[in-house]
Amino acid sequence: MSDLAIGLLSVLLATNTPVALSNLIARQTGISIHIPDPNDPVEKAYQKLLAEDDAAQAEVDQWIKAKQERGDANDAELAALRARIQQRLDQVRQAYEDFLKQHPNHARARVAYGSFLNDIQEEDAARVQWEKACELDPKLPAAWNNLGNWHGHNGSVSNAFRCYLKALELRPTEPVYYENLAITMYMFRRDAAAYFNLSEHDVLQKAMALYRKALELDPENFILATEYAQSYYGFKPPKTGDANTDRKAAEKHFQDAMAAWTQAAKLARDEIERQGVFLHFARWQIDAGQFDAARSNLALVTHSMYDRTKSNLLRKLDRLQAEARLTNALAPPAPAK
């Protein structure tokens, strides 16, 4: 039995389990975490607050879905629905305000309140809560991650990098943090090159490595797998000037992309997602000149939602295949040996 397993057994026998477990993990892994005591009255009030937030958002989603299922609504009905939603969300806002008035130094509540404000498009107010949470508890990774999201959308990209790196430092096993840093480096590759003192090519390789780390930690996540696979569309291997080297690099890029989409196909949760991956297989195969394989994958796409995309790819396939046949027909015969 490992030292950590033995320690966990001791924790189960401890009188103050949350404190004992937190101390054990800090000793064994070097990662300091806060494990709340579920019997603490403040913790109970906080959990009740989160439950109210979740319940309100579920109710609002249900109201919107019901309206959509009923079809078109007149202006008066839409105004009434908006007022009803606003009233319900105001109740949650007031609950957060009341809690923080009593417990102004509760960092996790400020993170949650910030997420609530962000969900209702009050992004600047959300940022205030997350910054306060970081100030109150600098070791709270969710606060740094959320603040990184804010900077990535509204502020300095350099600050986004700094916040994501801090979140990863505090919780290096959280796949979302790797994903967020990967997205930001990929989207803002020039800023990332300056911040990390890397070439743009190296930035992209780093971003792809971060995606792979996220998938390693969350290997069953189809959305993450497709996000990683789609990233291969956004760059090509740099040209070296040597035709043979460039050809091999392009082939590897193609194989890496196909491998990523193959993994996504294995994780598809239904036929719609699976057929969507078949379209990506075909797109890559068309560009690689693998026309028969592309046509086979397109034949597997039968859902009507993909009709337009499938039709466009078939037209491209027919055109490129015809051009290839013409090129081969006009090519001079090989010299006799």
Number of strands: 0
Strand content: under 5%
SSE arrangement, N to C: HHHHHHHHHHHHHHHH
Described by the principal axes of the CA atoms, the overall outline is: globular
Largest sheet: none
Q: Name the poorly predicted regions.
A: 1-32
Description of the structure:
This protein is mainly alpha-helical and 337 residues long. It has three domains: 1-35, no CATH class; 38-138, Alpha Horseshoe (Serine Threonine Protein Phosphatase 5, Tetratricopeptide repeat), CATH 1.25.40.10; 220-328, no CATH class. Helix content is 77%, strand content 0%. The protein has 16 helices and no strands. Helix 5 (107-119) runs antiparallel to helix 6 (123-136), helix 8 (157-170) packs antiparallel against helix 9 (175-187) and helix 9 crosses helix 10 (189-196). The chain starts with a helix and ends in a 7-residue tail after the last helix. Residues 1-32 have low confidence and may be disordered.
What is the element layout, followed by pairings?
Layout: H1 3-12, H2 17-29, H3 41-70, H4 75-102, H5 107-119, H6 123-136, H7 141-154, H8 157-170, H9 175-187, H10 189-196, H11 200-217, H12 222-230, H13 243-267, H14 271-287, H15 291-299, H16 307-330
Helix pairs in contact: 1-2, 3-4, 4-5, 5-6, 6-7, 7-8, 8-9, 9-10, 9-11, 10-11, 12-13, 13-14, 14-15, 14-16, 15-16
List keywords for this structure.
mainly alpha; 3 domains; 337 residues; globular; 77% helix; Serine Threonine Protein Phosphatase 5, Tetratricopeptide repeat
